[in-house]
Amino acid sequence: xxxxxxxxGPADEQQITLRGPAELADALPYLMGFHPNDSVxxxxxxxxxxxxGGRLRLGxxxxxxxxxxxxxxxxxxxxxxSERRGERPDAIVIFLxxxxxxxxxxxxxxxxxxxFAQRLRTACGGLDVPxxxxxxxxxxxxxxxxxxxxxxxxxEGSRLAMPGTSVMAAAAAYAGIQVRGxxxxxxxxxAPLTTSAAVGQQRALDSAGAELVPKLLDEAxxxxxxxxxxxxxxxxxxRLGEAPVTTPSASDIGDDGLISHDEAAAVIxxxxxxxxxxxxAEWMEGPEADSALRLWRALSRRCVAPYEEHAAxxxxxxxxxxxxxxxxxxxxxxxxxxxxxxxxYTFAQLLHEACNQGLDPETxxxxxxxxxxxxxxxxxxxxxxxxxxxxxxxSATRRKKTPSGSTRPESAAIRRRxxxxxxxxxxxxxxx
Length: 432
Fold this sequence. Notes:
This protein is α+β, with helices and mostly antiparallel strands.
């Protein structure tokens, strides 16, 4: 197969060459920033030397009936998305990653997913872009769906290199690139609590909803809730910032213990208001960014059933802070989860698209800094509150505030009460 070149430096200063399926499989966690579980990943290749380009990830559909339409959607998304960014792929590499269930082998996973791999190859070929390689990675081994040579791709699969020993691992270490665990581990840090504490948190959310939702629907009450929400969020950030940071799991447990059920419920409900959420997004850089990220993660975990949709706001804020501070894999995971909770959440949609298109978050940071500066100036001049002066918002921020199902404070609560759910898959598309 062709050689592939991956840039590991910030300005394409360093290139490495990947030769064959083995090095390609070993490179996958560094391409994504994490070890993908239960995922189909497609990577665009450009030029005769196979330079890596755009990439996308999606959870493997459970039902084989979904494989054909999902394959067509993924192929079109990657190819057309690359064209919109100015460069049509010359080829594509596919990865199917799935851990075996109890009593299942990696070989069985590979055979079970073979029809899906073929659907993906056919869908890409139908758009005149060949699939150069399709790999299944399972149980510490990889298999090629394209290579018929058993000398390099035996039927029992080939063992992956030991972590940290591949050419890609060496180049990534030199460039300071980190692999942030598995996708499952990253999502678990943001998942709703399932311990006995979930019952107390649900009661607190019920109580806070009865008190705050009527206020959120009233203009004057909304301002009071916004002020109280942001004041409480600042107090919680200060409390978290003073706590020691250890391992991620221990830190999360410690953070959960520092926030009461009532405090979490009050901030979660308050963030359902768009204006309040936008104000909270200003904690995006410097010393306050780390504390804000810890708070948004903690609040995402407190959105227990049946309040899962309320997690769209803290998850989106976690994704924004991650992106703003340079953690793009973490941003994509958080934003993908936000859109899984509510596919219509406009702020998450726009951030997800901007992150995937490789845009610079500084554009939005400047906008939010300007909002804070203007608001501070208004307070200094003490304007007449009855006039309620409003500043013109930049166009990017106006788009962010387009009404959507979950950005109105009452909508998530109404859908929860009526029993309506949301379903749908979210493709996580990256740029290389």
